[in-house]
Structures are given as C-alpha cells and as structure tokens.
Write a structure and sequence with these properties.
single chain; mainly alpha; Leucine-rich Repeat Variant; elongated; 0% strand; 67% helix; 22 helices
C-alpha cells in the first residue's frame, strides 16, 4: 500500500516485485518464500526498519538474479520512503558521537543491504574471463626461473584440462612453450565469453571455472620468479660465477668481474651492474667498461650508458667517449653550451672529441669565444676536442683563437688542435708563431714546423 501523496511510479516498484512473486506461483514454482513486502503508509523510523527487516528476509531467500533485482527495486522504494519521512535531525552542536541520527542509521542499513545484494550476485562468466586475462598478464610480464617456467606450465596444463571439460575449446599447446600456453589461455577466455553462460542456469559451470582459475592463480603464485631469488642466487643461476676456479679478491663478485672484463663478457658486467646494488660494485663495473673501451660497446651497454648520460652522469659520458659511441652524439651536443656546469662541459667535450663527432664542430667552435666566469676552464678543452675530431671546418675558428685569445692555455690548445687536423694550411697557421713569447704556443709552432719540413722532405 501507499499513501495518496506517493508518486505512482515509485509506489509501483514494490508492487512490481510482488507481481513477480505471484507470476512465479502461477507458473508452479515454489511459493514457500518470504512474502514480498510493501512500503508502510506512514514512514517512520520504526516502520522503515520493519520494512527493511522484511527486505532482508527476502534477500536471504533470493535464489536467482531476478530475485536479487526484486530486492534492489525494494531498496529503491525504501530510499524513496526515507526521503519522504519526517525524521528528527541530529543536533549540530552535539559533540557526542553516539547522538541519535535515525536518518543516517537507515541510510547505512540500506547501504549494507545493497552491498549484500552485490555479494550475492553471480558468479558471472565475465569474472572468469577477467581471471584468465590476469593470469595471461602474469605469465607474459614475469621473468621466470627455469624451474618456475616448468611449474607455471604445469598450472596452465591443469587449468586447460579442466576448462576443456567445461567449455567448447581446443587449446592444448606444447608444455614447454609457455608463450603458446598464454595464447591458449586467451582462447579459453574467448570461448567462455562466447558460451553466453547464464549466472543462474549455468551457475555450476561458472563456479567450476572460477575454482579452476583460483587454482591457476595459486599455481602461478607458487612458481619461482627471478625476483624470488636472492641476488647471489640469481647471479649463480645466470652463470656469473662460472668463470671462477679459485679466487683471492674479496668480494667474490669482484673477482668474477675482473675475469669477465678479461674475457670481454659485457653482458655479465651489465648483469652485475644491474644486480649488485652497492656503490663499490657499481664503480668497478663502470670502470671495467671504461677500460674495455670499444670492446664494451654493445646494444645493451649503449642503452645502459645512454640512460645514465641523459641524467648528466659524467662517468657514463666518459665511457661513451672511450667506446667512440657515435650513438651518443645527439645527447652530448645538447650539453655543450651548459656553461653553468663546467665539469660536465669538459667531460662532454672530451667524449665528443674521442667519438670524432662532426656534428659537434660548430657547437664546440662557439665555445672558443670568452663566455662568463668559467670560460677559461672549458675553452682549452673545446679546442682540443676540435683537434680530436679533425674536421677542417675548425681551422678558421682555431686560427682566430690562436691569434686573438688572451689566454695562453687557449692559444696553445688551438695550436695543438690545428696540428692534429694536420693539413698544410693548418700547420702553416701554427708555424707562424715560432717566435711567440709564450713557451706553450712556440712549442706547438716548432712542432708544426718540423711536420712541414718532414712533409717537404718526402714530397
């Protein structure tokens, strides 16, 4: 029943639920269920609580999704009754946490019943699909040990066997191919979605599939991952210590590192760099790569060092220079004008020179002009880098620095760089300063003269 002020559409919700129960009785279904309640005519705290008691009893008897839909409709109806009820409001000035709030208590009770309805729903085929897709992601994203791959494969095999008995799917790949097994799980997920399993009629099938996915998840959780191993166990499993017969250096990781450097095992040095989280071993790993120079240049080492160089790591920049890693040129050229960090500039200039980066000629030449308080610290290094690169485009700016710069260090470095470029034009430019007052500059000029004389003698 409803009072005369109720909206007909709202009042019909409880009636609809009651009508469903009557239809079920007419169809011969069991009627030994709690009667469908109706909202009280007068909405008071007591009457609404009684209404919710009856809804809770109906929820306890619910057996199908339709039954739960009826309960949801009744809860909507109860909320409408609560909105219309004239209930006392708590005193805003009352600081007592236990102050009476009938409306709030009823709202909380309706919320709890709604949660119970959601908990009672399902299980659904979509839950099975989500669980399978989560297992696929685990398989594809996890780095397994050898034993772990085998255990994970066992878990997938068991799931596929169970799933094959419950849904129409033919997916039984080779046990040893975990990637193929992941694809097979995807095929099962598609088969479950296509089977259009009803949460009521096919509840047993859906529940069995969910039990199987729980077993699959547990099996994958138990399978051994690399992250489950201690660092030394990971290194041992990957053969890091295999190079050791006997050793005297401590720690043993350092002994193995020296042997890997001697043998040119760049991948093992990178493994140690990644795995051994200590400043001591990090320094020795990087020093090993630096000493190896071009021998240390691999795709993996470039990726590691470029990542560090992008964070302005001067040691990594130095190693890239020793490797003559042209791949680093673009990154390093960006740092050439950073006059606020002269130490970084010096490392970058040297590395670009060792790389022989022609793209750096103009940026380095720009650094020959006095700029700021730290200019004298870096300009000689810019000149020497141009000499290492050996590009003839640098002759004119180096000649200008030799003729006009106020710093003898810069002028001597420019003279040295011109000698490294080594063309007749470059050598003659330096040789003109043989009588220079600066010993450093005159020394470079004398060396240039000897080079010209030697070239003439062999002509």
């Amino acid at each position: 029943m409803s009072n005369g002020d109720d909206d007909p559409a709202d009042a019909s919700k409880g009636a609809d639920a009651a009508g469903d129960a009557e239809e079920a009785a007419d169809a011969g279904e069991s009627t030994e269920r709690t009667a469908v309640p109706t909202r009280p005519d007068e909405a008071t705290e007591e009457s609404l609580n009684e209404y919710l008691d009856e809804i809770a009893a109906l929820l306890d008897d619910a057996e199908t999704e339709a039954d739960l839909d009826d309960v949801d409709a009744l809860l909507d109806d109860a909320e409408d009754g609560l909105d219309e009820a004239d209930l006392p409001e708590p005193d805003e000035d009352d600081e007592d946490d236990d102050a009476e709030d009938p409306r709030g208590d009823l709202e909380d009770r309706i919320g709890d019943l709604r949660e119970s309805v959601e908990d009672a729903r399902g299980p659904y085929a979509a839950d099975v699909v989500d669980a399978i897709e989560a297992a696929v992601a685990t398989i594809e994203d996890t780095e397994w040990t050898a034993d772990g791959r085998d255990d994970a494969a066992d878990a997938v095999d068991a799931f596929l066997e169970t799933a094959g008995e419950l849904v129409d799917v033919d997916a039984f790949p080779d046990h040893d191919e975990l990637e193929e097994q992941a694809a097979a799980l995807g095929a099962v997920a598609e088969a479950v979605a296509d089977a259009d399993l009803d949460p009521d009629d096919d509840a047993d099938t859906v529940a069995a599939l969910l039990d199987a996915t729980d077993d699959l998840e547990a099996g994958l959780d138990d399978a051994e991952e690399w992250d489950d191993l201690e660092t030394h166990e990971q290194l041992r499993a990957q053969g890091y210590y295999d190079v050791l017969g006997h050793y005297k250096d401590y720690p043993v990781e350092w002994s193995a590192l020296k042997e890997h450097e001697k043998r040119g095992n760049v991948d093992m040095i990178l493994l140690a760099l990644d795995s051994l989280q200590s400043d001591f071993m990090e320094r020795h790993c990087l020093e090993a790569l630096e000493r190896m120079g071009k021998r240390a240049k691999t795709d993996a080492s470039l990726e590691e060092l470029l990542g560090r160089a992008e964070k302005r790591d001067q040691f990594a920049i130095s190693i890239l220079g020793k490797m003559a890693a042209a791949e680093a040129t673009e990154t390093l050229v960006e740092y050439v004008p950073e006059d606020s960090n002269p130490q970084l500039q010096k490392a970058v200039f040297k590395a670009l020179g060792e790389i022989g980066a022609a793209e750096a000629v103009q940026p380095l030449a720009d650094q020959l002009d006095p700029q700021g308080d730290t200019a004298d610290l870096v300009r000689p290094h810019a000149a020497r880098a141009l000499g290492f690169i050996g590009d003839t485009r640098a002759i004119d700016p180096l000649a200008d620095a030799l003729a006009e710069d106020d710093s003898d260090d810069v002028r001597a470095a420019a003279g040295w760089a011109l000698r490294q470029i080594g063309t007749r034009d470059a050598l003659e430019t330096v040789a003109e300063y043989a009588d220079e007052r600066s010993f450093l500059v005159s020394t470079e000029a004398e060396k240039a003269e000897r080079s010209l004389d030697a070239a003439s003698a062999t002509a």
